[in-house]
Amino acid sequence: MTITHPPTPGTALWVHAHPSRRSLNGRLFEEGVQELSGRYDVTTSDLYAQGFDPVLGERDFGAGVEEPRNIAELVGAAYSGGRLPTDVRAEQAKLAAAELLVLQFPLWWYGPPAILKGWIDRVLTAGFAYGDLDPDLGVPRRYGDGGLVGRTALVVVTAGEDARSIGARGISGDLESLLFPLTHGVLWYVGIETLDLHVVHDADALDAREVEREVDRLRERLRGVEAEPVRRFRRLRDGDYQGTRALRADLLPGRTDLGIHVLPPG
Amino acid sequence: MTITHPPTPGTALWVHAHPSRRSLNGRLFEEGVQELSGRYDVTTSDLYAQGFDPVLGERDFGAGVEEPRNIAELVGAAYSGGRLPTDVRAEQAKLAAAELLVLQFPLWWYGPPAILKGWIDRVLTAGFAYGDLDPDLGVPRRYGDGGLVGRTALVVVTAGEDARSIGARGISGDLESLLFPLTHGVLWYVGIETLDLHVVHDADALDAREVEREVDRLRERLRGVEAEPVRRFRRLRDGDYQGTRALRADLLPGRTDLGIHVLPPG
User: Fold this and answer.
1) Nearest CA to A189 among B118, B179, B178, B155?
2) Residue A125 Cα distances to A25, B108, B170, B189, angstroms
3) Which one, of A141, A4, A123, lies nearest residue A75 by Cα?
4) Which residues in chain A touch residue B106, judged by CB atoms under 8 angstroms apart?
5) According to the model, what pLDDT value does residue A229 have?
6) B48 vs A55: CB contact, 8 Å cut-off?
């Protein structure tokens, strides 16, 4: 059996991870969902409003495990056995249906808030999001393939810092690298392609007019989202990685930065 | 007023973020705490055992906020006003006392589990961990200075992947970059220096003998921890960053990888 879940055309899932609806994020969420609703059947996961519990624990992998076991394997067995908790199954159903995924969050400590990290920890289980072997190549179906192949994700992130601080040589590290664990390590790992990040800088300092401008900019971006090119991370199955582990020595020799996993243009 | 909390000499805090005490992590936690206890007064935060709630929410920043406000500022005001929840205040007290901090977790989706991310989100509040200006330079006391200066952290991480997959050219990105948001964006930001990562590779595939070897390796590491050199990230106050935002153009010109924030040797 393969674990691919074909998305339902015209369906989108918007995952939102900010505690206050009266915030800039709350506004962008509302307006963004409205904008997409003209063309998509939009489902939402408003994680704070749902009271989503982000702590992967015994109810996910089964109580009373008597000896050391791989947690991911136990959770995968719970998935296959239909024993995952209801909240996780509901999120998996929404994700399985969506061809467009929007992940929207404020940048907290240079990553997603815990409630979104835990949505990833709990929802992207083995057996659902990854775990197959490619039958032709004998390598795992991951990094450009996987249980959720055929989907595109837009990451919408608000940051208190300005474009220089989280830019290419910014003191906090560039945002592309800071979010590599999400765009590459999570999304690309399970087969989801990503569009360019949608970043709102100086998010805590915007005045009312600037907020309106950001609302308009997001709406405009969403209107053209189907036509946007996806990022080109390297695919495991294309043979760029030796024995599935490390980039071949003849590709970008000597470089060790995260940029080596992005396909050169052309 | 400055927000520096001088640590109590000989005090350590070990934060542990794995759901099962019968796991490899549970074993390393127990043995590591025991090893340190010979020389340190060791406090622990066993986040799963404590039932720590990682979701930063209204109890942290105050209910009934009527208009958009900066969450971090609201939480900072709650800190100054003594209104933070009891669980957060308890964690802050432990952290304020510790001169050695150990953060131990399994690598889930290329980052800390949600329960640890949320410990960071909730405990490292403005006013406690950051927020001062340097009186001489007029720049914020962050990146190498801050509320928790004078502390050293050891990050102990178990990974299912092998040393190649998360090595310098590994398919998943190198672990140093994947954890840069933690070592630099969190710890260095608030003034905590870090030691080299302590990584257990292939953590799901170790046999009993290999587990014992990992226990011994951690114990040995801990025995010599005071003598280890700390990492040398660039300090904001040393002037390497123009206007506190981006690395000066004359330093490592043209490079944009995260490695530019590490001081060259010598």
Assistant:
1) B178
2) 28, 11, 23, 33
3) A123
4) 71
5) 95
6) yes
B:91-120 residues touching chain A, CB 8 A cutoff: 106, 108-115, 117-118, 120
Determine the Cα angle at B33 with ends B183 and B200, to 5°. 50
pLDDT in tens, A126-174: 999 999 888 887 888 999 999 999 999 999 999 999 999 999 999 999 9
Residue B120 corresponds to which tokens in the numbers above?
């960071």
Q: How many CB pairs under 8 A join A and B?
A: 216
Element (H, E) at B8: none
Q: How many CB atoms lie within 10 A of CB A93?
A: 13
> What does the pLDDT look like over B17-61, one tens digit per residue?
999 988 999 999 999 999 999 999 999 999 999 999 999 999 999
Structural element, H or E, at residue B90:
helix B86-97
Q: Are B176 and A180 spatial neighbours (Cβ–Cβ below 8 Å)?
A: no
Pair A262, B257: CB distance under 8 Å: no
Question: Is A236–B261 a contact, with Cβ atoms under 8 angstroms apart?
Answer: no
Is the distance from CB of B190 to CB of A115 less than 8 angstroms?
no
Q: Tell me how far apart the alpha carbons of residues A34 and A106 are, in angstroms, rounded to a whole number.
A: 20
SS3 A19: coil
The answer to whether residue A235 scores a pLDDT higher than 90 is yes
pLDDT at A1 over 60: no
Q: Which pair of tokens denotes residue B247?
A: 């690395």
Helix A86-97 vs helix A114-123: crossing angle, to nearest 10: 80
Query: Rounded to whole angstroms, how far apart are CA atoms B123 and A213?
Result: 34
List CB contacts of A221: < 8 A, sequence separation 6 or more: A154, A198
A83-94: pLDDT as tens digits: 999 999 999 999
From the list A107, A147, A155, the residue with the least C-alpha distance to A123 is A147
Q: Which residue is closest to B58 within chain A, CA to CA?
A: A19
What is the set of domains in chain A, with CATH numbers?
11-261 (3.40.50.360)
Interface ipTM = 0.97
| Minimum Cα–Cα distance from B61: chain A residue | A19
Structure tokens at B189: 């930001």
